[in-house]
Design brief:
Radius of gyration: 14 Å
Oligomer: single chain
Strand content: 35-45%
Number of strands: 4
Structural class: mainly beta
Number of helices: 1
Helix content: 10-25%
Number of domains: 1
Strand order of the largest sheet: 2-1-4-3
Length: 81
């Protein structure tokens, strides 16, 4: 199944809220990492320049994640509290 690489940047703005920016969607990991390299020294991004992972329980920085094309990635409902 073909995949793409999604790059997002996240930072906490309060205990209850995150500021997530969609950077872009790239055809391969190399292009995604190049986008991070271009942005990580820019204002705002430079405060959280690391590539992080949800598996590491880190929530501030750049997320580079591979997604299968044509597949649902959120398969359950949600509730608002």
């Amino acid at each position: 199944m073909p995949t793409v690489f999604v790059v997002q940047h996240s930072r906490k703005i309060s205990d209850d809220a995150d500021d997530v920016k969609m950077i872009g969607v790239y055809a391969n990991r190399t292009d995604a990492l190049s986008a991070v390299a271009r942005l990580k020294s820019q204002p705002g991004f430079s405060a959280y320049p690391e590539i992080v992972s949800h598996e590491d329980d880190l929530d501030e920085g750049f997320f580079v994640e591979e997604y299968e094309i044509g597949k649902d990635h959120w398969t359950e409902g949600f509730v608002t509290v």
